[in-house]
Design a protein that fits this description.
The chain is α+β, with helices and mostly antiparallel strands. It contains 13 helices and 19 strands. The protein folds into 2 domains: 177 residues, Creatine Amidinohydrolase, Chain A, domain 1 (3-Layer(aba) Sandwich); 258 residues, Creatinase/methionine aminopeptidase superfamily (Creatine Amidinohydrolase). Helix 8 packs across helix 9 and helix 8 crosses helix 13. The longest helix is centred in the middle third of the chain and has 24 residues. 44% of the residues are buried. Glycine (GLY) binds next to loops.
């Protein structure tokens, strides 16, 4: 506890310049190699769309965020942009971005548009065209491709648009043009490679976790009876933004008292009271990458005995889960360790009654109090892509987030009611175990109390 010092202003530098460009080029090369393997060395094209801006009301738009796969393979974040990664049978890669034209009168209202020259230079593509020319230029690429790799999980305009291009090519059949013969799921390829983070991604995610840790510590300092959940949401956002994060990775959960038992409660008007717990699940997005941290603490700064009993069970469950997280194990191993620890704790407190620990686990008695999994992949998406069947390996980033939630119920002693506790950290799997990216923000009750009360 004596060693605890907040780490304000000790953030590592992130350089999104040339290093990032190298990562993006490597990713496209890897994608092309995998496309050739899967298609049996046939000429193939992968098609990605950044997305359209969405209207919030009338002429006001929601803030735009490019689709994660597009961002991953291009590094480019403007709306209305398309990326084509074409590879011929001998493995030569031709990448093309279609993007908005630079129009001065539009830039005056909406800000800088990269334009074709800058896109080509900055994102390393061979061809860079205005998006107005998409429909005329694209048919040549489709005609040259026997196989198309498109996202299967996309419900926007992408698949409809691709179909319309295929129909156009079909129409040329009598003049000797062949339409593509096979369609493959692009998501399976991007999922695989997004699951293992490269050094740029790791550095960015370390920094995102550091910024979120600072934000959690700021919220702890501002937390007191009489302030609202929304006030603390604002303090989190304040720290995210002044430390350079562009956005939240997901709407911040600031849950007080009974709200701690609502897993995804959104910060609202409720005023905090002494004696209650506060659960904050919040993380920033930095250069597209998410962080996802939860801390639960007493609004007064001091845990009651019963709150601390439950808290220590969750903390022990998290420690056991983290202990298990290393290369070679399945992601369900940390979960099983957390479930065992939580079930043992609930039995000891008499909250569940079973003949034995094994029996309680087998019958899932814990599920009433612990109804979610212990972790998920983290990356460009907060619930990131990737198989949950693969064993953990170095470069994967995941959360470890056990919890216990006790909603009021007649069969439970009243002093347990409305205690909802989750502790969530972000970890990077390393060759020998794991690195906790979010360890700057205290989870030890004494350290929390020191931070809140001095
Ligand atoms: N913040 C959502 C989650 O922890 O999964
Ligand atoms: Mn999470
Ligand atoms: Mn979370």
């Amino acid at each position: 506890m004596n060693n605890f010092k907040p780490t304000i202003n000790q953030l590592p530098e992130v350089n999104p310049g040339p290093r990032h460009l190298n990562s993006v080029l490597e990713r496209r090369k890897l994608l092309a190699r995998r496309m050739l393997q899967i298609s049996g060395e046939r000429p193939s094209v992968a098609i990605l769309f950044s997305g359209n801006e969405q209207i919030r009301n009338k002429d006001v738009l929601f803030p735009f965020r490019a689709s994660s796969d597009f961002l991953y393979l291009s590094g480019f974040s403007e709306p209305e942009a398309w990326l084509f990664v074409y590879v011929n049978a001998s493995g030569t890669l031709t990448d093309t971005i279609f993007s908005r034209k630079k129009i001065k009168s539009k830039e005056i209202w909406e800000g800088i548009i990269a334009g074709q020259l800058l896109v080509k230079e900055k994102y390393g593509v061979k061809n860079s065209f205005p998006v107005d020319e998409l429909n005329s230029e694209v048919l040549e690429i489709i005609e040259a491709s026997e196989c198309i790799f498109a996202p299967f999980n996309d419900f926007s305009v992408v698949n409809k648009t691709i179909n319309s291009w295929i129909l156009e090519v079909e129409k040329k059949k009598r003049s000797g043009v062949d339409a593509p013969k096979a369609l493959f799921n692009l998501n399976l390829l991007t999922e695989d490679s997004r699951q293992i983070k490269d050094s740029y991604e790791i550095q960015t995610m370390r920094q995102a976790a550091k910024i979120s840790s600072l934000a959690h510590m700021r919220a702890m300092k501002f937390c007191k009876a009489g302030v609202s959940e929304s006030h603390l949401e604002a303090e989190l956002l304040h720290e995210f933004k002044i430390q350079g994060a562009q956005d939240v990775a997901y709407p911040s959960i600031v849950a007080s008292g009974p709200h701690t038992c609502i897993l995804h409660h959104r910060a609202g008007k409720r005023i905090l009271n002494d004696g209650e717990l506060l659960l904050i699940d919040a993380g920033c997005e930095l250069n597209g990458y998410a962080s996802d941290i939860t801390r639960t603490f007493p609004i007064s700064g001091r845990f009651s005995a019963v709150q601390r009993d439950i808290y220590e069970i969750v903390r022990a469950a998290q420690a056991e889960a983290i202990e298990k997280a290393k290369p070679g194990v399945n992601i369900s191993d940390p979960h099983d360790a957390a479930v065992r620890c939580i079930t043992r704790g609930l039995l000891d407190l008499g909250l569940i009654k079973s003949a034995s620990l094994e029996d309680a686990i087998q019958k899932k008695d814990y599920f009433r109090f612990y109804m979610h999994r212990t972790g998920h992949w983290l990356g460009l998406d907060v619930h990131d892509v990737g198989s949950y069947k693969k064993p953990l390996s170095a470069g994967m980033v995941m959360t470890v987030e056990p919890g216990i939630y006790i909603s009021p119920a007649e069969d439970l002693p009243e002093h347990f009611w409305n205690i909802g506790i989750r502790i969530e950290d972000d970890i990077l799997i390393t060759e020998s175990g794991c690195e906790i990216l979010s360890e700057d923000v205290p989870a030890n009750p004494d350290e929390i109390q020191y931070l809140m009360c001095g």
